[in-house]
Amino acid sequence: MTYPSLPEEVPILHTRFRIITPMFIHGIYPQKAELRLPSVKGCLRFWFRAIHPGYFVQTDQRRKAPTLEEMIFGSAQHGQSRFLMHLPKHSLRHVPYFEPRRGTCSFFVVKGVSKHYFLPGQSFSLSFAFRPEENQLRMKQVYQAVIASTWLLGNIGGLGSHTRRSYGSLLLEEWQSDDHSISKWTSSLPMLHSVSTLEEWKTQFHNGIKTIRSWFPPPKQAVPHVKDFPNTRLDQEARLYFQANLFDSEEAARKAGERVLHAFANSRSDDQSHRFVLGLLMYFRGRQVNATAPKDFKSAHAKNLFEA
């Protein structure tokens, strides 16, 4: 793996992601797929909020002190983030979406123009350069936030449009750093790209979640305005749903997953919350597994991998 040239005096984390399913991501021109750093950073924020129970807590006693998220990822009020991101030039191939039937409604056709997407199976590199910080506690918080968010993005996350329908799924293939502090944190999380069975994936993922939870303890005191921060949370009530059947291609798994979602929408379950359960594809050495059928949601397929 060839890494970009970055200043040697700052700690750097190099990563590589593989695109698992078609990635619809672009700027103002839908006919040109474009991998943009603001989109990646936004997804990292999402996963940081999902996993850190105190991301909204202010960093000190000042009335307008930044929250932990603002200190790490930056904000308009409190300035830049504590890290820089670098996306090297890439040769990712993108193609237009092919509409099988004319006149059908599609998310991927805008005013008759097909959106372009990055083809699955391609990889891209992404590097993080961390700003020096004298406060070692804050430096540790920044490292852990970026590493945890990157790990989640590269194992159960995605980029671009319709990631909840399995498009744009990513796989973290590699990360590396010459900085001892960064390497210590990355080496404590399992690399799931090498697992070969669903049970192995569950075990490794659960171990990774337990490690990240040990980094991010809940706030010492209850925060009255916590209800003002609605977002996805990987708390102890979160569940992942699995199906044992494997597929030979991401397309077959994705179509099976879409049928599951359609069944959700048309079902008349007594528990209406089930209608909001969506799943992403997972990768097992070139094979895919989709979400389980609706009738099995309350069965042994449902497993809590987020327990402490």
UniProtKB/TrEMBL annotation:
Keywords: Antiviral defense. Residues 17-170 form the CRISPR type III-associated protein domain. Transmembrane segments: none annotated. InterPro entries: CRISPR-assoc_prot_TM1795 (IPR007522), RAMP_III_fam (IPR005537). Pfam families: RAMPs (PF03787). One of its GO terms (biological process) is defense response to virus. It comes from the Bacteria. This is Type III-B CRISPR module RAMP protein Cmr1. It comes from Thermoflavimicrobium daqui.
